[in-house]
Design brief:
Blueprint: E1 2-6, H1 11-22, E2 26-30, H2 50-55, E3 59-62, H3 66-79, E4 83-85, H4 92-101, E5 106-109, H5 115-130, E6 137-144, H6 154-166, H7 171-174, E7 176-178, E8 192-198, E9 204-211, E10 216-223, H8 227-240, E11 246-248, H9 250-253
């Protein structure tokens, strides 16, 4: 299996390169982000552009940036090369474009590729189904390193969507309460709250809290090493080969649905 990595000189790109080789796959090469000053890992093949990377690969892993998600998904569709997409912060329009490309080629897109996070998402949906929104307010608190540019994080939003799904609705319909400041009025029943913290070099911390008048239930996941994301992404790359076109998630990769 020839696996290509978009943005191979970045922090995630380097980890992905290590995990691809550890899995016994062939590293077909990588691309560098335009304007990046990062040096690629020594001895690894660098492709001149994304089109060349897709042409040289059986599958491509992309953890670069939301702005690259759509062009890479379109390249995947045109070249019939499966894509593992880990970029977060996609807009609704970008998500629709990725879904359209997935009609022609298999795509695994996940907000977080760590197996533990996906187990928490599954548990969040089950808890939300059992704890009525009228009695249990759902709040999500996340913290990341100071360089992260999107908030709430993709994983936090995935938690919110899991809660909404458990309650038989969508995050948009339930309503998001984020960035509260000043006299905001009372909390809306059934809405899902978000708080984003940024500082230092925290890899990722997410807490889902169900708060009722008589009890609180909290589930926390902490990532201490980005390697867990790389391990999960390579696992997804091995899983997706031979699949039919479609938009898959890490839940599918883990056999949880």
């Amino acid at each position: 299996m020839r696996i290509g990595i978009a943005g191979i000189a970045g922090r995630m790109g380097r980890l992905l390169a290590e995990e691809v080789q550890a899995a016994g796959a062939i590293l077909s090469g990588g691309t560098l982000r335009p304007g990046s000053r990062a040096e690629p890992p020594a001895g690894l093949p660098i492709q001149p552009d994304a089109a060349a990377l897709f042409a040289a690969s059986d599958i491509v892993i992309d953890f670069t940036h939301a702005e690259e998600a759509v062009p890479h998904a379109e390249l995947a569709a045109r070249s019939a090369t499966p894509l593992v997409l880990g970029s977060s912060g996609l807009s609704a329009a970008q998500e629709r474009a990725v879904a359209e490309a997935a009609q022609l080629v298999p795509v695994v897109h996940a907000a977080n590729f760590a197996p533990g996070v996906n187990l928490v998402l599954a548990l969040a949906e089950k808890l939300a189904a059992a704890l009525p929104a009228e009695a249990y307010d759902a709040e999500i608190v996340e913290m990341h390193h100071r360089q992260k540019v999107d908030a709430p994080s993709g994983t936090a939003l995935a938690m919110g969507r899991a809660v909404a799904a458990g309650r038989g609705t969508t995050l948009e319909a339930a309503g998001m309460e984020s960035g509260r400041d000043g006299h905001t009025g009372a909390r809306r029943t059934g809405s899902i709250g978000f708080a984003a913290l940024r500082g230092g070099q925290v890899v990722g911390e997410h807490t889902l809290l169900f708060a009722a008048a008589t009890e609180h239930i909290a589930i926390t996941h902490r990532s201490f090493d980005r390697r867990s994301y790389a391990v999960g992404a390579v696992r997804a790359a091995q899983w997706i080969i031979g699949r039919r076109p479609g938009l898959y998630s890490m839940m599918d990769v883990l056999g949880m649905r």
